[in-house]
Amino acid sequence: MSEEEPTGESTVTVVLAGAVNLAIAVMKAVAGIITGSGAMLSEAAHSVADTITEILLLTALRRSARPADRVHPFGYGKERYFWSLLAAVSIFASGAMFSFYEGFSTVFGEPEEQTNPLVGYIVLVLAFLMEGVSWTQAMRQVRGEAREQNRSIPQYLRLVDDPAPKAVFFEDSAALVGLVLAFLGLFLHHLTGSSLWDGLASITIGVLLVFVAYNLGRTNLGLLIGRQADPVVVRGIREALARAPEIEAVVDLQTMLLGTDQILVCARVDFDDSLGAADVERACVRLASELHQAYSDVEEVFIEPVPRTDPELRAAVLARYGRAFQ
Q: Which residues are in the Cation efflux protein transmembrane domain (predicted)?
C-alpha cells in the first residue's frame, strides 16, 4: 500500500461514513435553526464531529502506509494510532462539549418555543436512513473480519489493531442512538410544550459522545504505548520456537504491534550447547523465515541466544509475566 493510494475496506468504510456525515450535518443544522431544537443542533454538532473524525481517519490511513526509512526503520504504522487518537479527541471536543452547552443552556435558560417540528421529524428520519447505510458498511467489515479471525464481534473490537473500522462502527452506532434521542426530545417538546425535554436529550447525546470518545481514546492509547500482538498469534509463535530442534527452551518472548498488520517479535532462546556459531546463525535465519510464512503480520524477528539459567533474565521475565509464562 503506497502513501498516495491507500486502499482496502477500511478506506471505503471511512470515505462512505465521511460523505454521509457531512450531508447529515448540513441537514441537521438547517433543521435545528428552523425548529429551534437544541437536540437537533446537538446532533448537527455530533455529525460535524464525525465528519472531522473521518478526515482524521483518512489522514491516518494515508500517512501510516509510508514505507520505512532511515529515520523510522520500523515504518510509520503507529501514526495511524496517533491520528485516530486525535479523532477521539475531536468527538469529545466538537460533539460532546457543544451538546452539553446546548443542553444546559436549554434546561436552565429561558423556555424556547418550538417551530415547524415536522421539518425536524423529516430530517431525523432521512438522517437515520443515511446513517444506516454507513453503519451497514461498518458492520459488514467488522462482522467479516471477526468471522475470519473466528471471534465474536466484542472480542474482535477489543483486540483489533486497525482503529478505523472500530471508530466508524462506534460513531455510526452512536449516531443512530443519538438520532433516536433527538427524535424523543423533539417529540416530547412538541407534545408537552416544554423545552426541558429538548435540553435533556442534548445532555444525553453529550454523555453518549463522551462514552464513545473515551472508548476510542483508550484503544488508541494502548496501541500507541505498544500493545502485544494477538494472544493467539503470540502463543503460536512461542510454540513454533519451542518445537525447533535447535532450541532447548524459550526463555523470553516479547511482541509489539508496529501498526495495523505489523508485528515485531523479540525472542530470547536457549540454544543447544552443542551447536556452533554458524549453526545458530542458520537456525535464526530459518526460524525468522518460518515465522514470516506462518504469520503474514510478522514484520521483524529478532532472536537472541541466552542461557536459561541467567538469574537476572529469569527475574525480569518473572516480574513481567509471573510464572504463567513458564
A: 15-224
- Specify the DSSP class assigned to residue 8: S
Average pLDDT over residues 88-104: 85
* Yes or no: domain 9-225 corresponds to CATH 1.25.40.10: no
Q: Residue 65 CB: number of other CB atoms within 10 A?
A: 22
C-alpha cell at 211: 462514552
Q: pLDDT per residue over 261-316, tens digit each?
A: 899 999 999 999 899 999 999 999 999 999 999 999 999 999 999 888 877 777 77
Q: Where are the domains of the chain?
A: 9-225, 231-325
Residue spans of beta strands (DSSP E) within the chain: 247-259, 262-271, 298-305
For the chain, the average pLDDT equals 86
Q: Which CATH number fits domain 231-325: 3.40.50.1970, 3.50.50.60, 3.30.450.20, 3.30.70.1350?
A: 3.30.70.1350
| Residue 320 Cα distances to 90, 248, 324, angstroms | 35, 22, 10
CB–CB of 217/89 below 8 Å? Answer: yes
Mean pLDDT, to the nearest integer, of 164-170? 86
Q: From CA 260, how far away is CA 230, in angstroms rounded?
A: 12
Query: What's this model's pTM, rounded to 2 decimal places?
Result: 0.78
Q: Identify whether the C-beta of residue 116 lies closer than 8 Å to the C-beta of residue 34.
A: yes
